[in-house]
Every structure is written in C-alpha cells, then in structure tokens.
Design brief:
two-stranded antiparallel ribbon, alpha/beta, 10 strands, single chain
C-alpha cells in the first residue's frame, strides 16, 4: 500500500490520532512495537495560525517515528489552508484532515464530524488544503452525522475528487460517538466501489490481532487503524503484526514485562512534561490497560494507583501488583 510515494507495505497497521494520547513518546513506543504509521494529536487550525504555543508544540515530530502524519481540524477554508502550510514546514510525511472528531467542543462548533452536516464546506476545505501543500493530504471521517444520513459511500468519491491521497473511515456516525459497535459494512462498500482508487483505511473497535485480521479479510481495506485499543496497551501492534504474519497468537510475556512497559510510559511522560502533569497525563493509560482486568479485589489498588501524585508513590504501588497477579488474559 502506498500513500503518495510512501510505501507502507502489505496490510499496514496505523496508530490513530487521539487527543491527549498520541504525543511523541507514545507514538515512538507504538512505532517500536510495530505501528507502520503514527498520527499526532489533532491540531486546531485557528490556534495554530494564532501561534498558540501549546498547539505549536504538537507539531514536533522526530525522524524515529516516520512515517508520521500531522492531523488538523477547523471550519474555515483560509485558516485550514494556512495551518496546513505551517504543518508542512514542521516536516511530517502526511497532512491529515480531521472530519471525524465527535466531541461537542469540536463537532458542535462545525469542525471535525460537524463537517458531515456541511458537505460543500468540507469539500472546499479539502480542495484548498490539497492545493496549499506539496505533501500527500488524507482525510479521516465517519459514516455520516446520524443513522438517517449514512453518506460515506458517496462522500468518499467526492473527497477522492478533491485530490486526497487516502481516506480513513471510522465505522460509526457522529451521533453514536463511541457507543455501540463499529459497523464496517459501508467501509467494505467503499472498497468495492470500482470508482475508488485511493487507499481506504478502516477504523473502529480493533482491539485484538484476530479482529484486525478479520477486518482485512472481510472488508478488503488497505490498512487498519487502531485507536482506543492501544491505550495502555502499546504492545498491541506487536501482537497484530505477529498474527498477520504467522496466523498464530503471540505467546504472552511475563506480567512484569508488560508492567515495565507501563512504567516506561510513566517515565517518558514525566520527562516530557513534569512530574505532576506527566502523572496526570499517563493516568488514562493506567486506567485503560487490560493488564489489571483479571486481578481479583483490585479496586483498592486501582484507586491508589490513579491517585498517586509522585513517581515514587506510583511505582511503589505498581511494584506490589505482580505479587497479587496470577493470570494474564487479554
């Protein structure tokens, strides 16, 4: 599979862009475990062109994580085009446009998935961003605004006509947010459309190696994107790549192997931010990881873990966990 001139190999697996999750340290870790491409947290076009420092920091990418895409969102044609140029100057491999974020503060203001209610503006933005940069431009969106407006099959053709190099589709509507199950039926229809010639990337509820392979096999997508299934579990990419290559499940490691990865995430988060903010940032991963799910009577330990305010206190709690855990079953 190629996006522009970027060769991503056969059946590539991507790390999805996720706000407050896909900072550089997490991207590098997922890359280490086999992610074929990674995406930044989404970047507000309005904040970027106003040179908001916190937003500009999201543009920082490293050679070690390539290929890497910077994702932007907004609802104004001129600001999106200018933001794309600023992103291109930061040196990513791809510019991705977010037309899929469902949260109220984004979609409710007409950006992200809010664009699914204003298709002419969505297409104008896409055309102008493509014109503004020399890098490949891709789009990530959803099936439609709600179940009464499942427009993605027709919309995919229109976005392709705007000049994008690939399209990612999350198998939910905006109104579903992240509830229910992702429906890949329309993603398969896009792939079966003979008029489509750009790569199609499927996204939604890929939480295991087996599910990933099934999506490739049943939907014919060119790539699969993993989002929430990687939070607190960056090693999922290692499991997926092994299964896609061999058809066999990767044997589990010792509990301490997984725990050490989580501790490494803590250290990297603290180094990138500071102790207080770094621990706050990493709590999402600690809360979401499946590593602790089968430990009996774990509630008290979980509460203490998520309330710890120093690395020393947090690691003291984590170091006690292997002594009470007997089972690893993801």
């Amino acid at each position: 599979m190629k996006i522009g001139s970027i060769d991503l190999g056969l059946r590539p697996v991507f790390l999805a862009p996720m706000e407050d999750v896909t900072d550089m340290s997490f991207r590098l870790m997922c890359k280490r475990f086999g992610a074929d491409m990674v995406y930044t947290e989404f970047v507000s076009s309005d904040a970027l062109i106003r040179h908001v420092n916190k937003t500009k920091l999201k543009l920082t990418v490293s050679d070690e994580e390539r290929p890497v895409a910077i994702q932007i969102y907004g609802k104004d044609v001129a600001s999106m085009a200018e933001a794309a140029r600023l992103c291109e100057a930061a040196g990513p491999d791809i510019i991705d446009i977010n037309f899929g974020c469902p949260v109220k503060k984004v979609a409710g203001k007409g950006a992200g998935a809010g664009m699914l209610r204003n298709i002419p503006l969505m297409l104008d933005i896409t055309k102008e961003v493509v014109k503004a940069v020399k890098l490949p431009v891709t789009v990530k969106t959803r099936l439609g605004w709600d179940m009464d407006n499942l427009i993605i099959v027709d919309l995919a053709e229109k976005l392709q006509d705007c000049g994008i190099a690939a399209l990612t589709v999350h198998g939910r509507t905006r109104s579903q947010m992240y509830t229910g199950q992702a429906d890949w039926t329309l993603i398969r229809q896009i792939k079966e459309n003979p008029r489509m010639n750009i790569p199609i990337i499927g996204n939604g509820d890929v939480t295991s190696a087996e599910i990933c392979k099934e999506r490739f096999d049943s939907c014919g997508v060119d790539a699969v994107m993993v989002g929430r299934g990687s939070i607190g579990r960056p090693w999922i990419f290692r499991e997926i790549k092994h299964f896609l290559t061999t058809g066999e499940k990767l044997p589990d490691e010792d509990f301490s192997w997984y725990l050490n990865i989580l501790k490494e995430q803590v250290r990297q988060s603290v180094e990138q931010l500071d102790e207080r903010r770094g621990i706050l940032h990493i709590r999402r991963h600690l809360a979401a990881t499946p590593l602790f799910k089968n430990i009996p009577d774990f509630k008290k330990t979980r509460v203490a873990m998520l309330r710890a305010e120093t690395v020393s206190d947090l690691f003291s709690i984590l170091n006690e966990i292997p002594q009470i855990n007997k089972i690893i079953d993801f």
